[in-house]
Write a structure and sequence with these properties.
This protein has about 190 residues and is mainly alpha-helical. About 70% of the residues lie in helices and about 0% in strands. α6 runs antiparallel to α7 and α6 crosses α8.
């Protein structure tokens, strides 16, 4: 629309980066994360070696529930900054969400949880990776630590989703039906 066409007058080199960053933040704030992603993708070629750029793009993609973009961006940020717990956590979470490279997802999500032991998202992501690897006992230990009454609606929904995945894998049809009835699909990502 008009907003994104106005950005065509802003240089796409590093001199215009802050305008693009600010624009993307405003767009996310007004619930137009789809446009925020478009804005940032326009300047991606100038930031191919910039992990901070990829963290911003990941946040916009997450707000847009675009798991395909999140997966690509998480991998790139991890390539650029493999020792950054955010990069490892995002990449591990995306591998778990997409059901890919299960051993690597467990390793990365464990590293993220180790760096952030009180983080509920890190616990949920690590439990998801463990469930994908069919390490149900280890996943259950983590899941028991999570107080559902203190979660945001989005986090609670993700927790329910991974518990649903667990129930499907172990063949607990009653639990599958119970959790499926509680899921709010508006909080799910595009690959879920």
């Amino acid at each position: 629309g008009t907003f994104t066409s106005a950005l065509n007058h802003v240089p796409r080199d590093r001199s215009g980066t802050e305008v693009y960053y600010f624009s993307s933040e405003v767009l996310v704030h007004i619930d137009r994360a789809d446009l925020a992603c478009d804005v940032l993708v326009q300047i991606e070629p100038q930031h191919l070696q910039d992990s901070e750029f990829y963290f911003r793009l990941f946040a916009a993609a997450e707000a847009n529930k675009d798991a395909i973009l999140m997966r690509r961006v998480a991998e790139r940020s991890y390539q650029l900054a493999p020792h950054d717990p955010r990069a490892a956590g995002n990449y591990g979470a995306m591998l778990a969400m997409c059901g890919e490279q299960t051993d690597r997802a467990v390793t990365l999500s464990a590293a993220c949880l180790s760096a952030n032991p009180g983080s509920i998202p890190a616990k949920i992501n690590h439990a998801a990776a463990l469930i994908n690897s069919e390490m149900f006992g280890s996943a259950d230990l983590i899941l028991r630590e999570i107080d559902e009454s203190r979660l945001t609606r989005a986090a609670l929904n993700q927790l329910r989703f991974i518990k649903l995945k667990r129930a499907l894998k172990i063949g607990d049809d009653r639990e599958v039906r119970r959790l499926a009835a509680l899921l709010d699909k508006s909080f799910l990502y595009s690959v879920q």
